[in-house]
Amino acid sequence: MRRWLKAATVAASLVLFGAQSAVASDTVGWKTVSTNSNWYCGAYVKHSESYEIGMFGLNFKACTVVNSSGGAQAVLVAQNANELHLWYMQKGRVVFESQLGGDIWCAASNLESGLTRGCYAPTVPVGKCQRVDAAYVEMTIGGVTERAYGRPAYTPC
Fold it and tell me: pTM of the full predicted structure?
């Protein structure tokens, strides 16, 4: 009887712990953006949920920033080109060097008219004189998620 009870307890523990979903990482807040020659960016994408006839909407793009120490990080850059109102960014995501821990979720936030902000992923070590894969980013507005792609970068030698 004790063996059966012990086996049942172990099985129940495996079911309980095995059935739990992965814990989501903390979200990252938005900061100001100041680019220079160490930034490698893809083209801006206009989010379809921000389109209004005769108005500018919310644009977003993926960038990779490299440093002289052999580190790189990706940034989701969002730009509110609308002169009349803010955009509510429900969710953002950066996918970059996943095996090195470069992926993050961006906090929900309002983006005021005329502002540009970035959601910065952590810096990951890729080494000097290395080609760095392009990041991609996702932006959700009004329940619609769209994607933008960056371009490959190279760390300085």
Answer: 0.81
SS3 4: helix
- Positive or negative, the CA dihedral 32, 99, 134, 80 is negative
* Coil/strand/helix, residue 20: coil
Structure tokens at 102: 């470069």
Q: What is the total residue count of the chain? A: 157
- CA 94 to chain CA centroid, Å, is 2
- Containing 12, the helix (H) or strand (E) segment is helix 2-18
The neighbour count for residue 33, using CB atoms within 10 Å, is 17
What is the percent of the chain with per-residue pLDDT over 90, rounded to a whole number? 72
Q: What is the distance between the alpha carbons of residues 116 and 81, in angstroms, rounded to a whole number?
A: 9
